[in-house]
């Protein structure tokens, strides 16, 4: 297995959120704009799906933001200290994220989406339609602190 892996973005987020925030990610529309060197036909049929799986890079993070140690989510001592791979933020080694935005439409190389928690200019490394039958199987469980931490995550910014 190689020690490194190179990846070239397939698209870029255009519009939507302009700044990084922990909450209030809902309701914002953005475009995922496919690179010019990919034919628009690579998106043919995508508009028939309701959601995407988008893998993207925390491009505003710095390499020294990576934190390979135990810490409480969002620095809140009320929540248990957990390891790096229990967090879903930019402090991960490869600074990658996965999101599941709703598809509003496809026009040429542009995919119009909502509820994408990436910011304007974010490099998109991969995208695919969401297939529910390939989602988690069986009961899904999370510790209580996850729901305690995220009640405002998908609220609209105008609901603050």
Based on the model shown, name its key terms.
single chain, 160 residues, mainly beta, Elongation Factor Tu (Ef-tu), domain 3, seven-stranded antiparallel sheet, 1 helix, 7 strands
Number of strands: 7
Please state the structural category: mainly beta
Number of domains: 1
Biggest sheet, strands in spatial order?
4-3-7-1-2-6-5
Shape summary: globular
> Hey, roughly how much beta strand do the residues contain?
15-25%
Low-confidence stretches: none
Helix-residue proportion: under 10%
Distance between the termini: 47 Å
Q: Assign the CATH class.
A: Mainly Beta
Kindly identify the CATH topology.
Elongation Factor Tu (Ef-tu), domain 3
Order of helices and strands: EEEEEEEH
Mean pLDDT: 91
* Gyration radius, in Å: 17 Å
CATH architecture: Beta Barrel
The named CATH superfamily: YaeB-like
- Major sheet size, sense and barrel closure: 7 strands, antiparallel
Total DSSP helices: 1
Protein name: Transcriptional regulator
Family: Belongs to the tRNA methyltransferase O family.
Organism: Streptomyces uncialis
Keywords: S-adenosyl-L-methionine
Report on this model:
The chain contains one helix and seven strands. Strand 5 and strand 6 (110-114) form a beta hairpin. It is mainly β and 160 residues long. A seven-stranded antiparallel β-sheet has the order 4-3-7-1-2-6-5, with no helix packed on it. The chain has a single domain (11-153), classed as YaeB-like (Elongation Factor Tu (Ef-tu), domain 3), CATH 2.40.30. It has one helix spanning 144-149, and strands at residues 11-14, 29-34, 52-57, 96-99, 102-107, 110-114, 123-129.
């Amino acid at each position: 297995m190689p020690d490194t892996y190179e990846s070239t973005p397939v698209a870029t987020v255009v519009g939507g959120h302009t700044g990084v925030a922990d909450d209030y990610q809902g309701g914002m529309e953005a475009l995922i704009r496919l690179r010019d060197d990919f034919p628009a036909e690579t998106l043919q049929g995508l508009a028939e799906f309701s959601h995407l799986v988008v893998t993207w890079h925390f491009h505003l993070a710095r390499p020294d933001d990576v934190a390979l140690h135990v810490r409480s989510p969002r620095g809140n001592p009320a929540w248990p200290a957990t390891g790096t791979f229990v967090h879903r933020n930019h402090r991960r080694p490869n600074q990658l994220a996965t999101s599941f935005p709703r598809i509003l439409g496809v026009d040429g190389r542009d995919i119009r989406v909502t509820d994408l928690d990436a910011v304007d200019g974010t490099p998109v490394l991969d995208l695919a339609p969401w297939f529910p039958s390939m989602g988690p199987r069986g009961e899904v469980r999370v510790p209580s602190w996850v729901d305690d931490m995220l009640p405002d995550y998908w609220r609209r910014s105008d609901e603050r």
